[in-house]
Amino acid sequence: MIIKELNGNMPVFGDNCYIAENAVIVGEVSMGNDCSIWYNAVLRGDVHFIKMGNKVNIQDGAVVHCTYKKSPTTIGNNVSVGHNAIVHGCTIKDNVLIGMGSIVMDDCVVESNSIVAAGAVVTKGTVVASGTIYAGVPAKKVKDISQELISDQIDRIANNYVQYATWYK
User: Fold this and answer.
1) Closest-CA residue to 76 (of 94, 58, 55, 99)
2) What does the pLDDT look like over 156-167, one tens digit per residue?
3) Which residue has the higher pLDDT, 153 or 83?
């Protein structure tokens, strides 16, 4: 793994975090407890800060970055960022699933209890409303989320990644 200080900013980790051997975490990055950063994931807090809450998983090949002095990235609690997703200069609130291969661009807000579908492109400044699923290119609301789907997808995946991390420690 590459954990690198840059411009006086060293990444900060909460308790019980797992970082894969070839993950890259640079600069002003902070994460809460029970987080996991998987293979080939890159978190670059070089041009602005990245702040993550508790129980966040950044899956294989995902990239988390920001826009220079303009758009930091903030990720809440209980968030899964799927394989090869890009999260860039945006705000992801609590209890969110960012699907595999999706892109969330600058100044977007993904509100709590929502899903960005696999392959979706959430364009600059979009607000993904709480309790919805956004899909497509550009991403648009496709439906509301039931409480059952929140439990079955968002919570299950976040909890599974906490468990998976224990296998690697």
Assistant:
1) 94
2) 999 999 999 999
3) 83
